[in-house]
Every structure is written in C-alpha cells, then in structure tokens.
Amino acid sequence: MTTVRTFVQDTAVRGPDNGRYRGEIQPGWDIGGNANGGYMLAIATRAMIDASGRPDPVTVTAHYLRPGGVGPVGVDTEVVKSGKRFATVRANLISLAGDTERPLMSIIGTFGDLDSSVHNDPELVTAAPPELPPFAECTHRMGGSGDTVAPDFSRRVDLRLHPDDSFLDGRKSGKASLRGWFTFPELGTEGTLDPVGLIQATDAFPPTIFNVDLPVAWVPTVELTSHVRARPAPGPLRCVFTTRFVTGGFLEEDGEVWDSTGRLVAQSRQLALLPRSV
Amino acid sequence: MTTVRTFVQDTAVRGPDNGRYRGEIQPGWDIGGNANGGYMLAIATRAMIDASGRPDPVTVTAHYLRPGGVGPVGVDTEVVKSGKRFATVRANLISLAGDTERPLMSIIGTFGDLDSSVHNDPELVTAAPPELPPFAECTHRMGGSGDTVAPDFSRRVDLRLHPDDSFLDGRKSGKASLRGWFTFPELGTEGTLDPVGLIQATDAFPPTIFNVDLPVAWVPTVELTSHVRARPAPGPLRCVFTTRFVTGGFLEEDGEVWDSTGRLVAQSRQLALLPRSV
User: Fold this and answer.
1) Shortest CA distance to B250 belongs to which of A34, A113, A146, A62?
2) Whole-angstrom Cα distance, residue A196 to residue A10?
C-alpha cells in the first residue's frame, strides 16, 4: 500500500521539549540529494508559529547555512518580543543526523493574525498577476509524466511553467524570469494552501537565470525573505519570479504569488550566488 | 565651538565586553523624537561586522520592535556560522536607557568581503539608475535652508529629492515612488560612503506613499532587508524607492541605490504598516 504524504504532514513538528521543536526532513523533497530550501524553511516556520502563539507568518527571513539531507532536525526558537499585534521569533534549524549538531538555516520572523488586517483600509495596487494559460492546459509540469530528469522535489509540488518560460524543452526565453502555477498535488484544483505553503511557493521554482545564456548550473541561496500579505483563496497560485541584477557574483530573485481571486498573497526576494565559472 | 559629528562617529561601537558591544543613539538622528531606523540598524551592523570578522555586510535583515530614543544601547551578537566565504551573525539592539533593558531591533546578517567578488563573472543588468537633475541643482533638499518643518534627522543626511517627486511644496506626484540623491553632509560631493552608509541610505527617505492620496501620516517599518551588492565609488548616490502594493494594511518599499559610476550598490525591501485610518 502506498501512502500519499502531504506537505502539511511532511513539514510537521512536535514539541517543544526544553525549547526545541523536532521534525524530520522527509525523503522526496530534495534536488540531487539536498532538501529544497523552501521546504526546510517551512518546517522551521511551523515551529516558529507555535512559539509565537500567533496563527500566521507575516515576514520570514532565512539565511541558508548548509545543505540539508533526509533525517531528524531540531528547531531552537526564541521569542524576542511578544507585542499586542505581532510577535517576533528567531530560530535555528539544526540537523540532528550524525554525531554533531549542525545549523542548516538561521531564521527571524514576525508573526500575527492576517485576518485582523483591515481589508477596507485604503489599497493601492499598480501591478497585475502574471498571464498564464489555464492550469489544466499548462502541460509543462516539472516532474510530470513527460519529464524524466526532474528532481524528486518537483513531484512533491505541482509546478506548471508558462510554455514561453519553460526551458524544459531546451528553449530559453532570453529573459531572467519564470511564470507558472503552483500548488501541492494533494490539493487538486480546489484545495487551499496555508500560509506556510505560500512560503514554500516562494522557493520552489527553478532559477530565473536558467532562461538566459549564462554559464551556470546551480544558484545557491544566501538569504530569502518572504512576506505573506494575505491568506490565499482556494485553488492553484499564479507566480512570477524575476531577476534584474546579476552583478559581482550575486543575483536577486523577486517573487510574487497571486491567488485565484487576483489578490497578491506573498512577495519574496532572495539573494543568491552565481557560482564562479569553471 | 561647534564640533561637526559624522555618520561614522555617531554609529561607532566599542567592545565587546562579555559578548555585548556598546554604542549610543546620538541626538539629531530622530524624527519627532524617535531615532531613524536605518541609523539604529547602522549601529547594530557595525557591531555585527566586528563580530563576523569580515569587512562587509552582504545582506542584513532587521525586525523593528520598538522606537529608540537618545541614550546608550547594547548590541548582543552571536555568530551562527563562520564559513570560508561568509559569516552569519544574529544580534539584538537593546536600549540601556532607563532601568529595564528593552530590545529595539532584532537583526540577522551575512557578512563577507565584497572585494572578493569576481567582477569578470558574467553580468546581466536590465535596469538603469533613476534620472535625476545634477546633485548641485537638486534644491529640494530635506532639511535645507528653505525647509523649516523637516525633522532633525534630515540635517544629518544630505538627501535631495527629484523636483517631480518632492511633496515638500505640497504637490504629490500621484505615484508611490521617490527618487533622489543621498550622501552625508560631511562627505561633500567627493566623499565615499562605506557599506554601512549604504544601509543607512536604504532607510532614510520619506515614505513613498506621501506622493499619493492616501490618508496616512506615518508608516512604521516591520522589517527591512538590505543587500549590499558592491562598495560604492566616491560621490553622492542615486536612489529610488517604489511601492506597488498597499494591501491589507501592509505595504512594501523597494529600494535601489546606484553609485556615481552607474553601478547598483544596494537593493532593499521593507515591509511597513499602513496605520488604520482614524
């Protein structure tokens, strides 16, 4: 019997016990043996939410220290301030596999209740969601039936690239940008991502610069900041990631995540390294 | 005798003593009695640089916990990882004024040597510095001789807004964006900002939304992330700050800082609150 595990199950934590939460980097979330960073951050964020006593992440920043492999992890949390509206928590995600504890990621986040936002406050939006073919018609699914080289990770998420941005068929768009749909396979077309799923969405897509002619094979993250702007409505999310500056061995990736009602639900930026050419 | 104090002097720290650096929020860096956030972050960053053993901040994220007033502060630092290329440090900036120690800001940063970047690596830039009148011709200087309502802070920095973006004369541009020059008065037109000065530049401008018709008087920062992409060349910096999403009581401000050679030297994003209308 095959048990289909879900994102929520695979990012669960228990505790705390003497201030430490415990979780597990589960098999199948890796890219070439290293767990996806957004997935590791999701585990840590669940512990930080619990420590904060608030339902939602509002802004989370992770510094990526080391690659993580399958096995037990700890999340050591510390509440820096618990205020009326927000609580700020810092945490280290620590590998407990092997003899030596090794920090994989160091995180700071501010948590609150997104439902308490005043939605009739003045709003101003000067951008629109990315244009995408309908979800069902997006066949450039990473890890889909036609894709035999995709990493394991791409089978745990349902990530469908805009056909014009898909380098999967060997054609680069020439622009350091990627548009696509994102959800989890277990949610189908109607399920709703939780805010931690939004954070996963902001670090799940392939590197933007795979669409331009730069001699790079991998783009390690130094730092990722994700803002959760609202809880999403049901259904897959429209995402766009863009890089404007590849300079001095660094690049940024700016992300936007929009829900099915056309509302911006998350915004992200990561600083990544352009490994030196060989 | 009037002594002209400089940004470098006013952000200096000493120590560490039992793991704590000490500094001082100096008079004159406030806006209505509260020290500017970028200035407080600059003090903390100096301590973190020392703790990291590396010359430059690469990416720094601060969560703003409480307003800070004039007086002694501590910076409690902890090196999370010291690697070959980077060191990651977290810190709390703590007010030591009064009987109770109170955290003002919690920060995480990754530090390295910006000179070690390989400048002949492939580069890709799809944006240009903001167009500005020459520095000398930019007369819309906050805190300049014609400005009697500017906060004290605006006299410690030399911040000159693009005339089209300057709401100082009561005309809003209608776009949630601000362009302008930034340096410190003590540097004149030839002096060079250090990387900590770049971080100050990313949280020194008035709120972008002062240029649109929203009923707001203040925009408290929740979180600021600044990436230092290169050490700047001598001379004032061209800056642009833009907001695209005011939603659910939150807004982001995206900043770019360019040096006199037309190189992007810093990039920033902050998440701020749109206080509820009264």
Assistant:
1) A113
2) 12
- B273 DSSP β-pair partners: B250
Give the number of other CB atoms < 10 A from CB of residue B1: 2
The torsion of the CA quartet A217, B117, A62, A112, rounded to 10 degrees, works out to -120
Task: For residue A90, give the amino acid letter.
Answer: R
What CA–CA distance (Å, rounded) separates A62 from A78?
A: 15
- Cα–Cα distance, A159 to A140 (Å, whole number): 9
- pTM exceeds 0.90: yes
Complex prediction ipTM? 0.95
Instruction: Give contacts of A209 with chain B, Cβ < 8 Å.
Output: 124
pLDDT per position as a tens digit, A105-140: 999 999 999 987 655 677 889 999 999 999 998 876
Q: Do B229 and A247 touch (CB under 8 A)?
A: yes
What residues form DSSP beta bridges with B183?
B158
Contact A247 B215 (CB under 8 A): no
For residue A73, the surrounding DSSP H or E stretch is: strand A71-82
Q: Which residue has the higher pLDDT, A93 or B217?
A: A93
As a whole number of angstroms, the distance between CA B38 and CA A139 comes to 46
Q: Which residue from A minimizes the CA distance to B115?
A: A248
The residues pairing with A177 across neighbouring beta strands, listed in sequence order, are A242
For residue B57, the cross-strand partners are B111
Residue A143 — φ and ψ, nearest 5°?
80, 5
Which residue out of B100, B208, B229 would a mutagenesis test of the A interface target, given it has the greatest number of A Cβ atoms within 10 Å?
Answer: B229
Burial of A1 (0-12, 13-18, 19+ CB in 10 A): exposed
Residue-level pLDDT at A131: 95
Residue B189: Cβ within 10 Å count: 13
Residue A178 and residue A142: Cα distance in Å, rounded? 13
Phi, psi at residue A133, to the nearest 5°?
-60, 155
Q: Do A225 and B225 touch (CB under 8 A)?
A: yes
CB-based contact (8 Å) between B166 and chain A? no
User: Phi and psi dihedrals of A36, rounded to 5?
Assistant: -55, 140
What sections of chain B are H helices per DSSP?
A: 7-10, 37-52, 195-201
Structure tokens at B104: 């003002």
Question: What is d(CA B214, CA B277) in angstroms, rounded to the nearest whole number?
Answer: 10
Question: How far off is chain A from B116, nearest CA to CA, in Å?
Answer: 9
A246 touching B (Cβ < 8 Å):
yes
The stretches in chain B having pLDDT less than 70 are 1-3, 117-120, 140, 142-150, 276-278
- The two tokens of residue A77 are 């949390």
Burial B98-127 (b: 16+ CB within 10 A, else e): eeeeebbbbbbbbbbebeebeeebbebeee
Answer yes or no: do A80 and B106 touch at CB < 8 A.
yes
CA distances from B267 to B8, B22, B50, B123, B158 (A): 21, 28, 23, 16, 19
List the single residue in B with minimal CA-CA distance to A115: B248
Tell me: pLDDT of A38 over 80.
yes
Size of interface A-B (CB pairs under 8 A): 181
